[in-house]
Amino acid sequence: AAAQGGYADQGYHPKLRRTGPSLDELRRAHKTIKKAVLARYPDFPTAFKSIDKDGSGTLRRAELRRFLAEMVKTVGDRIISGLIDFCDDDGDGKTLSKQEFCKLMSAEYLGAGGFDPNSGKRYGKGTRP
Q: Residue 58 in 3-state DSSP?
């Protein structure tokens, strides 16, 4: 179960379960994207500014998808959505703030022991987020 975006103690990251990609898939994509971004930009805030076409200060799914599709042909839509869900810690589910984006990009890896903004939150039977 842990490979499907859940935690070892059976508490699930609810969004990952819904969007489908496993943590392993997300980790591979994260590594690929990070490499591509750093090859093209001096740092993550600069990359954020470039992706944020409308200057709103947040990245919409469409902006991120368009950017990643140009840069990283190997990362599919489903994975991109999974990444947004995974690192969205303000719960809006639609956009990434600059802080969320930079945290995600600068992380060594995703999941337990690495970057997981939702790891402290427990979602299980009978509990509510």
A: strand
Q: Rounded to an integer, what distance in angstroms lies between the CA atom of residue 119 and that of residue 62?
A: 26
Distance of CA 112 to the CA centre of its chain: 14
Half-sphere exposure of 99 (CA within 13 A, CB side): 4
Integer-rounded Cα Rg, in Å, for the chain is 14
Q: Are 59 and 52 in contact (CB under 8 A)?
A: yes
Q: Per-residue pLDDT tens for 40-78?
A: 999 999 999 999 988 999 988 888 888 887 877 778 888
| 76 token code pair | 């599919």
Q: What is the 3-state secondary structure (H, E, C) of 12-41?
A: ECHHHHHHCCCHHHHHHHHHHHHHHHHHHC
Conformation bin of residue 126: beta by default, left when phi > 0, alpha when psi is -120 to 50: left
* CA separation for the pair 126, 113 (Å, rounded): 26
CB atoms within 10 A of CB 122: 12
